[in-house]
Automatic annotation (TrEMBL):
Entry-linked SUPFAM superfamilies: CoA-transferase family III (CaiB/BaiF)
InterPro entries documented for this protein: CoA-transferase_III_domain (IPR050483), CoA-Trfase_fam_III (IPR003673), CoA-Trfase_III_dom3_sf (IPR044855), CoA-Trfase_III_dom_1_sf (IPR023606)
PANTHER family attached to this UniProt entry: SUCCINATE--HYDROXYMETHYLGLUTARATE COA-TRANSFERASE
Record's keyword terms, sorted: Transferase
Species, as recorded: Hydrocarboniphaga effusa AP103
Keyword Transferase: yes
GO molecular function, one term: CoA-transferase activity
Transferase as UniProt keyword: yes
Signal peptide: none
Coiled-coil region list: none
Protein name per UniProt: Formyl-CoA transferase
Length: 402
């Protein structure tokens, strides 16, 4: 059978994951594991559940963000502040392969659910801990959200226009980067467990460190020459020409920074003089005259509509693109052709378009097996697997432990 026709089970089928986190960092990591077949049991506090259920746009009382973040998960309500709920959580952790949490350091230890306690019960457990500043160091006890990690990691300093107030990227990028690093850590730890006798381990991800890890040569430039990289707006410092340029009806991004690409770009916009200028034959020379090149490109784009600019430059193989809004994404054929927009039916019966699965695996692709759960809808089934049912379950409900 050809690989194109074959579809194996998702690669994480059979993996049991407990998710103790709320909002973004921890739950995003759980989402990725769930997309690729893991059984993810999300522990939520009784009553309101994860606050993300009520964030941003609501539809029929539930956040549409929740429908993305919590797909392929099961919801169990436990008030982890209560000893009986902590006992149940420990029993679930004994059977889990992975536990994800993003509480402030020390909270789970206070509940008897820290790494030392749980790893003693389950030596094969892999535990991902996402926090603002990590589990150690002088800042460990400070509260930290993604925006703080983005600032400390160096990203906020570079965001925005020169001389103006730094701006937010527009999404919770700090949390997402921490989650992605956490998933990498989980997969590495699972591989280590497989080849090294079954031992689990703890993964410590700090929000600011996840951002810092993506800051390219920021620190090395300072170390080597005392250079502090500054905000550059839409330009790409040290690489030219690469910027956003105005059109008569919007903006386009043009990356003309390859040597041969640069020549084609200059010829296309009618600047043979710049195309043939030997001082501009390499990136170093172009960076020295970046402002001149941006002015020349902008003078050409301002007289044209976005579609004309894109069509002209794509025809001569110059990388370019429009600045996409949500509408542009929803209407784009490339997104549709690659399955990056999928339609789900929520538990409330709504039809909703959501992002597809990434990365795309050829033999064992991920998928959306079931929509995001209602609060606590899996509590009875999961607790029954531990032998907790009937009068015992009713008593727990009466005490609002579940």
């Amino acid at each position: 059978m050809s690989s194109d026709a074959r579809t194996d089970p998702p690669p994480l089928t059979g993996l049991k994951v407990l998710e103790f986190g709320q909002l973004i960092g921890g739950p995003f990591a759980g989402k990725i594991l769930g997309d690729f077949g893991a059984e993810v049991i999300k522990i939520e506090p009784p009553g309101q559940g994860d606050p993300l259920r009520n964030w941003r746009l609501l539809r029929n009382g539930t956040s549409v963000w929740w429908q993305i973040q919590s797909r392929n998960k099961r919801s169990v309500t436990l008030d982890l502040r209560q000893p009986e709920a902590q006992d149940i959580a420990r029993r679930l952790a004994e059977e889990a392969d992975v536990l994800i949490e993003n509480f402030r350091p020390g909270v789970l230890e206070d509940w008897g659910l820290g790494w030392k306690q749980l790893s003693a019960l389950n030596p094969g457990l892999v535990m991902l801990r996402i926090s603002g500043y990590g589990q150690t160091g002088p800042y460990r006890d400070r509260p930290g959200f993604g925006v703080i990690g983005e600032a400390m990691g160096g990203l906020r300093h570079l965001s925005g226009e020169p001389g103006r107030l730094p701006v937010r990227v527009g999404v919770s990028i700090g949390d997402t980067l921490a989650a992605l690093h956490g998933v990498i850590g989980i997969l590495l730890a699972l591989y280590h467990r497989k080849v090294n006798g079954g031992a689990g381990q703890m993964i410590d991800v700090a929000l600011y460190e996840a951002v810092f890890n993506c800051m390219e040569s920021l620190l090395s430039e300072y170390s080597a020459a005392g250079v502090i990289r500054e905000p550059a707006g839409s330009a790409l410092p040290g690489i030219a020409p690469s910027n956003a340029y105005p059109c008569s009806d919007g903006h386009v991004l043009i990356a003309g920074n390859g040597d041969s690409i640069f020549r084609r770009l200059m010829e296309t916009i009618g600047r043979q003089d710049l195309a043939q200028d030997t001082a501009l034959a390499d990136n170093e020379g172009r960076v020295a005259r970046a402002a001149q090149l941006d002015e020349a490109i902008g003078a050409w784009t301002r007289l044209r509509r976005v579609e004309e600019v894109l069509g002209t430059l794509q025809a001569v193989r110059v990388p370019c693109g429009r600045v996409y809004s949500a509408r542009d994404i929803a209407e784009d054929p490339q997104y549709r052709a690659r399955g990056m927009i999928q339609t789900v039916t929520t538990r409330e019966g709504d039809m909703l378009e959501v992002p597809g699965i990434i990365p795309q695996l050829s033999l064992s692709p991920g998928g959306i097996r079931h929509p995001a759960p209602r609060l606590g809808e899996d509590t009875e089934a999961v607790l029954a697997s531990l032998g907790i049912e009937g009068e015992r379950l009713s008593a727990l409900r009466g005490a609002r432990i579940v």
